[in-house]
Structures are given as structure tokens and as C-alpha cells.
Design brief:
The chain is 24% helix and 30% strand. It contains 10 helices and 26 strands. It has a 5-stranded parallel sheet with strand order 3-2-1-7-19. Strands 9-16-10-11-12 form a 5-stranded parallel sheet, covered by helices on one side. Strand 2, helix 2 and strand 3 form a beta-alpha-beta unit. The longest helix has 15 residues. The protein is globular. The chain starts with a strand and ends with a helix. Bound molecules: flavin-adenine dinucleotide. It comes from Caulobacter segnis.
Length: 405
């Protein structure tokens, strides 16, 4: 009847509580979260929810009654400040010290800020929490001008949603293409063209020098070349930083995230870490990596709950991710480590295609736009680690089922 304390009531932390109960844990569970809300899903914050197509209730991971019915003790608006590993306690900002037999760190990541003048002006926003999303939604509407700083997935999704709300959108990107860190050039070009055709403008290879204000509110983004892009609101989407300080202060190893094994365990056998905050093994690729995705949060929540209950862990999954923009459903499986060639299958112009990344004849990753069969079969092929025929992959007259057989 061990007591499990979970720090971070986000997707990973909330799911860990659920898996513990589902797997039969009868001991105490305490879930500590510094946001005022019950665990909720973040993906809709830049998509359906921002466009007004999903209500707040639909974001919740579990209905409010679930926590009482399952005897999960909540500390919402509770900030965990310190871990005492010798005494096995977590101390909150309120002064409360909570004892644990097992501790799960699920503190996620926070939006990276830009260290430039004007970052504290009203209307310079980030998009990580429901509170952030609320501010952004209120700032958008017909005729409002949004400047998105950073052409990553969150920035592009917000751009698409803002267009749906009638706002004017410019995306400012330091690199020569959007999604430069996370997608191949074919995909970047495709998304840029798709957004442009829907009224978004791009400033590529563009540095941001400052946010300029009128009073205390933003009125424009000053670029490094001296131009001012007028705007009513700016969204800074330049990546996320893992909230690993609590672990680091407790002497646990961190390396862009808390280092864990395949059971999501840190070097302290009583402490686990899951979700965006971890630097985890990827057995398929024989390396460690930090992933930021819901499937990763769920997989590691299962790993930790299984280990705590002495059950066999889940089979390792192929990492995957999705993004929705306009009528596009992008699905990505795997990671293109050391890939030396790409194969495009389908019709890019018709917005229905997949890009496969191979290392020799092994499939490392697939990026699929409105192409679920390519995504599904690609994911299976990545897991199999068996040689793939490039000719068959490129040939749409051969079904993906056949390619994967
Ligand atoms: P989080 O969900 O961030 O939860 C961590 C929680 O811990 C937070 O509430 C944080 O405030 C809290 N916390 C931190 N420190 C403390 C402390 N000391 N004490 C108490 N509480 C603390 N993923 C996808 O797979 N597909 C998508 O389409 C997608 N879209 C996204 C869109 C947006 C706008 C964002 C922001 C993310 C998106 N993601 C998407 C990523 C996905 O939401 C994250 O990978 C997932 O939320 C990670 O879960 P987590 O529990 O590790 O972190």
C-alpha cells in the first residue's frame, strides 16, 4: 500500500494517476499541480479550442468526479519546491511536507522566452497553458493583427486558427524555413505554401530585435533589419524548456531533462520522471532523447505505473506526433536520425502525401499529410527494423499493406 506522490498535474501526471488505479494500486495517490485546473489536454489549445470549436470541459483528461471516486488526493495551485530524498518528502510552497514511497516527477516544460526588450509588454504572449490560451483567444478576432515569432508546430497551428478567426497573421522565423528543427524541407515548403495560400505572410531568415509598445501594450515587432511589423498581439513560440530544476536540486542527473531508464526510473529507485521533462532512452534508435508529445507522456506514465506495481512494462513504442492545421492532418512516426535518403509517396500538390526517411534500407521516420495508411504502415515498418523496398514505397499502385507485409 505504497503512497505515490505525483508532481505535475498535466497530461503525464494525470495519466499516471489513472494508470496506477487501472493497474490495481490501492495505496494513496497525491497529485500536486501548480495550475488551478484539473489535468487537461494541451493540443486543442492551439487548434479546436482556440478556434472556438471545443469547450473547456472537453479539454479535461478525466471528469472532476473521477478524482474523488478514485481516491486521488489533489493539491491544485500547489507548487512543489523541494524534494528531500533521504526523508522521502516533497515540500510545497505552502510549507506542507508530503511523504512518499514513490515519487513521480511530471513537471513538463515551459515556453522559452525571448530575452529582448519589450517582452513584458501586454499582448506579448506564450502558448503553453489554458490561461495562456485564454489570453490569446481574447486578443484574436476579425481584423486583429497577430505576429507569430517562431515557425514551429504550435506557432503554425495558432496561425491557422487565427486565420479561421479572421485575424491577419505574419510568421517571423529565424531560419530559412519553418519547422526547420522538426521536419524535412519538402514538408516545410508545403506548409509555407499552404499557409500563404490562406493569407498568412512569412518573414524568413528574420531576427527579432525588440517588441515595441504604445503605453504598456505591444504595437509592433522590430526586426533585425530595422523594419517594424505592426501588430496587436505577438505569440512567442520558440520552443520549450524542461522543468527539471526540482530534480536537479535534489541531485538527480539531468541533461536537457531528467535522465530516466525504460521504466521511467531515475537513478533513485524511488523516483520516476515522465513526459516532457524527461531525457529518455529510445531503444529503436539506441539513443537518449527528450520528446514533447502526448503519446510519449502516456507511454512513460504506463512505464512508471507498471514499475511501481511490479508489472511488466509496456512494449517500447515508435515515437509519434500529430499536428492539425486548416484541413491538414499531419502525422509523424519515428525520428529521422542519420537518415541518408527520403522517398516521397503521393501527391504534394493535392495535399495527400508522405515523406519517408531511410537510413540505408531501414525506415527511420515517416511524415504523412492526410495519409493515414502511410502513417500506420510506416509506423509498423519502423518498429519492425526490417529492410524496406524503396521502389515499392514510392509506387502508389502498391498498397501500403503490401509494402509493410
Ligand atoms: P504538461 O502537460 O506541461 O504538465 C506539466 C504540469 O506540471 C504543468 O501543469 C506544470 O505547470 C506543472 N508543474 C511544473 N512544475 C511544477 C511544480 N514544481 N509543482 C507543481 N506543478 C508543477 N503533443 C502532441 O502529441 N500532439 C499535439 O498536437 C500537440 N499540440 C500541442 C499544442 C500546444 C499548444 C502545446 C502547449 C503542446 C502540444 N503538444 C502536443 C505537447 C503535449 O501537450 C505535451 O507533450 C504534454 O502536455 C506533456 O505532458 P506533461 O505532463 O509532461 O507536461
Amino acid at each position: 500500500n505504497a503512497c505515490v506522490v505525483i508532481v505535475g498535474a498535466g497530461h503525464a501526471g494525470g495519466s499516471a494517476a489513472a494508470f496506477l488505479r487501472q493497474y490495481g494500486h490501492e495505496g494513496r495517490i497525491v497529485l500536486i499541480g501548480d495550475e488551478p485546473l484539473l489535468p487537461y489536454q494541451r493540443p486543442p489549445l492551439s487548434k479546436a479550442w482556440l478556434k472556438g470549436e471545443a469547450d473547456a470541459d472537453s479539454l479535461a483528461l478525466k471528469p472532476a468526479e473521477w478524482y474523488g471516486e478514485n481516491n486521488v488526493s489533489l493539491r491544485l495551485s500547489g507548487v512543489a519546491e523541494r524534494i528531500n530524498r533521504a526523508a522521502k518528502t516533497v515540500t510545497l510552497a505552502s510549507g506542507e511536507a508530503i511523504s512518499y514511497d514513490f515519487l513521480i516527477l511530471a513537471t513538463g516544460a515551459r515556453a522559452r522566452q525571448l530575452p529582448i526588450p519589450g517582452s513584458d509588454l501586454a499582448g506579448v504572449l506564450a502558448l503553453r497553458t489554458a490561461a495562456d490560451a485564454e489570453l490569446l483567444k481574447h486578443a484574436l478576432g476579425p481584423g486583429k493583427r497577430l505576429a507569430v515569432i517562431g515557425g514551429g508546430y504550435v506557432g503554425l497551428e495558432a496561425a491557422a486558427s487565427a486565420r479561421a478567426l479572421g485575424a491577419e497573421v505574419v510568421v517571423v522565423e529565424r531560419e530559412s524555413r519553418v519547422l526547420a528543427r522538426v521536419a524535412c524541407e519538402t514538408l516545410s515548403t508545403f506548409f509555407q505554401d499552404y499557409h500563404r495560400a490562406r493569407g498568412v505572410t512569412f518573414e524568413l531568415n528574420a531576427g527579432v530585435e525588440a517588441f515595441e509598445g504604445e503605453g504598456d501594450h505591444i504595437r509592433g515587432v522590430r526586426l533585425s533589419d530595422g523594419r517594424l511589423l505592426p501588430c496587436d498581439v505577438a505569440l512567442v513560440g520558440v520552443g520549450a524548456i524542461p522543468n527539471d530544476e526540482l530534480a536537479k536540486d535534489a541531485g538527480l542527473t539531468t541533461a536537457n531533462g531528467v535522465v530516466v531508464d525504460l521504466a521511467a526510473r531515475t537513478e533513485d529507485p524511488a523516483i520516476f520522471a515522465i513526459g516532457d521533462v524527461t531525457h529518455r532512452p529510445l531503444p529503436l534508435y539506441e539513443r537518449q532523447f527528450r520528446l514533447e508529445s502526448v503519446p510519449n507522456a502516456l507511454e512513460q506514465a504506463k512505464q512508471a505505473a507498471s514499475a511501481i506495481l511490479g508489472r511488466p512494462g509496456p512494449a517500447p513504442e515508435v515515437p509519434w506526433f500529430w499536428s492539425d492545421q486548416y484541413d491538414l492532418k499531419l502525422q509523424i512516426a519515428g525520428l529521422p536520425f542519420e537518415a541518408d535518403r527520403t522517398v516521397v509517396r503521393g501527391d504534394v500538390a493535392a495535399a495527400k502525401f508522405a515523406v519517408f526517411h531511410l537510413k540505408g534500407d531501414l525506415l527511420q521516420a515517416v511524415e504523412a499529410v492526410n495519409a493515414p495508411p502511410e502513417f500506420m504502415a510506416g509506423k509498423q515498418l519502423i518498429a519492425k527494423r526490417a529492410p524496406v523496398s524503396v521502389e515499392k514505397l514510392a509506387d502508389t499502385s502498391v498498397s501500403m499493406k503490401e509494402v509493410a507485409a
